[in-house]
């Protein structure tokens, strides 16, 4: 259970924290020539699977002209940011219309609501969005009896991990185990007995 909680809440990841669309002042606006309203576009942008290779905030951009069905693959990034789900749908724009937008990407852990992403010095029209940084979407585990040779006193642990594609399940599991170990090391250092006793010998 502890490992599952770490997988779902404590791994680092990247997400969009805010978006600014030219000509849009608030999330209840509509954009001429765009099928989706701003609220739906924001919802779709929250579905981006973003991988950031730096700790600093990064700006990614959209600059599209219709007619087009715009996907995550149309977002302009540099080498520091990768959009993993490039076929993720964002919106549809009609012929004769265009849309420009900038988005801020940050690298953190867990979940931050839109209110926590608001900045006092942000330009007018900047819309803060909820950020889900956790790259792990789902974790299931099952413990079953197992036999090794003639000995049936063992258990088999099966773990199912589903991610957003920015990290592979094996890496997510290993990183989660490391997070747990780092936290538990605080307790093993409390006494010499805990530090010096080998508990893994058969």
Please provide a written account of the structure.
It is a single chain. This protein is an alpha+beta fold. The chain has five helices and twelve strands. The chain has helices at 2-9, 38-45, 114-117, 169-188, 192-196, and strands at residues 12-21, 50-52, 58-65, 68-71, 81-83, 89-93, 98-109, 111-112, 126-128, 131-132, 136-148, 151-163. The strands form five sheets. The chain has a four-stranded antiparallel beta sheet. α1 packs across α4. The protein is elongated, with a radius of gyration of 22 Å. Belongs to the RNA polymerase alpha chain family. One of its GO terms (cellular component) is cytoplasm. GO terms for molecular function: DNA binding; DNA-directed RNA polymerase activity; protein dimerization activity. Pfam families: RNA_pol_A_bac, RNA_pol_L.
The arrangement of helices and strands along the chain is HEHEEEEEEEHEEEEHH
Tally of individual domains: 2
Low-confidence stretches: none
C-alpha-based Rg, rounded: 22 Å
Q: CATH superfamily of the largest domain, called what?
A: DNA-directed RNA polymerase, insert domain
Topology:
Blueprint: H1 2-9, E1 12-21, H2 38-45, E2 50-52, E3 58-65, E4 68-71, E5 81-83, E6 89-93, E7 98-109, E8 111-112, H3 114-117, E9 126-128, E10 131-132, E11 136-148, E12 151-163, H4 169-188, H5 192-196
Antiparallel strand pairs: 1-7, 1-9, 2-5, 3-7, 4-6, 8-10, 11-12
